[in-house]
């Protein structure tokens, strides 16, 4: 019988152990080896609801975060879900479940929080349902389509003890922060009037009916809004118009740039609800401004 040295025997044992263990090697993401080595139980399991134009940036951000795992996607357009699912798989190494109905996503008890990036008329309903189901919420601006919806969301956020954050990204911009700092510290003197320019959208249009494309749940897209015949331009995600030009879906420029700029005005003045003065035309004389009630993007 051939005698085997202790060193050779040890090498053979280690080689056999390595070969046996190879099929059981887990992905680095599962072991928390991505980036800063965040362990699986310390990561936030995130669901993304509404995977169109604005969600692309959010999706890329969260997929690149060490402490976040995107675990679910929801949209009423199958082509948006397919694109988002492929992106998640490419970054995380595995695809995640997709849902046509966001309620099915919220029924999962392994999801910690959701990002809501739908058209504005869905913000309140989805955010409230998410908080009721025990999820924290990041919702794109404007927080809601109407001021009354905002008051309800604030009340329910407190009732259910959830975290609710609104995407007022201008507060993270150094220029707006510096401007607010100057105003707060009296560098421009006493402020008596603030003029906010929002721009304009084309007027709402009664588009002709078109066939509903395969893969779109149009009734679900409309949701709480009144029924109107489908037209691609009505639901288009377009920063120059699209669904944003309709009061039923996006409250036009008030919910678009207004949600940003009104917020900065209040931030600079350290105020709560302010009287809103409506500008109808770009060159309108400010002395003819009309009071339109009050607007409070921070507190509903």
* Class per helix and strand makeup: alpha/beta
Please tell me the overall pLDDT.
Answer: 82
Order of strands in the sheet with most strands: 3-2-1-4-5-6
Question: How many beta-strand segments?
Answer: 8
Shape: globular
Low-confidence stretches: 14-37, 276-300
Helix content: 25-40%
| Number of H- or I-type helical stretches | 11
What does this structure look like?
- With 300 residues, this protein is an alpha/beta fold.
- It has two domains: 40-167, Rossmann fold (3-Layer(aba) Sandwich), CATH 3.40.50.720; 171-300, no CATH class.
- Helix content is 35%, strand content 13%.
- The chain has helices at 6-21, 55-63, 78-92, 102-106, 123-132, 147-160, 174-184, 218-222, 232-235, 252-255, 257-269, and strands at residues 44-49, 68-74, 98-99, 113-116, 136-140, 164-167, 274-278, 290-295.
- The strands form two sheets. It has a six-stranded parallel beta sheet, sandwiched between helices. A two-stranded antiparallel sheet has the order 7-8.
- Helix 5 (123-132) packs parallel to helix 6 (147-160) and helix 7 (174-184) runs parallel beside helix 11 (257-269).
- The longest helix has 16 residues, at 6-21.
- The N and C termini lie far apart (86 Å).
- 27% of the residues are buried.
């Amino acid at each position: 019988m051939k005698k085997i040295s202790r060193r050779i025997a040890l090498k053979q044992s280690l080689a056999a152990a390595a070969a046996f263990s190879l099929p059981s090697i887990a992905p680095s993401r599962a072991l928390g080896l991505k980036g800063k080595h965040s362990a699986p139980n310390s990561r936030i399991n995130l669901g993304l609801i509404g995977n169109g134009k604005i969600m692309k940036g959010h999706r890329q951000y969260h997929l690149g975060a060490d402490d976040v795992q995107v675990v679910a996607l929801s949209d009423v357009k199958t082509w948006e879900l397919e694109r988002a699912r492929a992106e998640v798989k490419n970054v995380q190494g595995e695809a995640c479940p997709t849902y046509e109905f966001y309620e099915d996503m919220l029924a999962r008890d392994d999801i910690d929080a959701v990002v809501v990036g739908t058209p504005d008329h869905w913000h309140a309903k989805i955010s409230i349902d998410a908080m009721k189901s025990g999820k924290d919420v990041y919702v794109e601006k404007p927080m809601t389509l109407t001021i009354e919806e905002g008051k309800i969301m604030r009340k329910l956020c407190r009732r259910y003890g959830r975290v609710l954050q609104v995407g007022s990204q201008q507060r993270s911009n150094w220029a707006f922060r510096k401007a607010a700092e100057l105003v707060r510290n009296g560098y421009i003197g006493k402020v008596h009037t603030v003029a906010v320019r929002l721009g304009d959208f084309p007027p709402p249009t009664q588009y002709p009916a078109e066939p509903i494309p395969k893969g779109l749940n149009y009734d679900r897209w409309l949701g709480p809004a009144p029924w109107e015949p489908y037209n691609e331009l009505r639901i288009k995600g377009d920063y120059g118009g699209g669904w944003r030009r309709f009061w039923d879906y996006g409250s036009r420029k008030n919910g678009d740039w207004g949600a940003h700029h009104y917020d900065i005005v209040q931030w600079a003045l350290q105020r709560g609800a302010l009287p809103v003065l409506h500008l109808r035309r770009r060159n309108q004389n400010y002395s003819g401004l009309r009071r339109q009630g009050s607007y409070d993007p921070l507190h509903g």
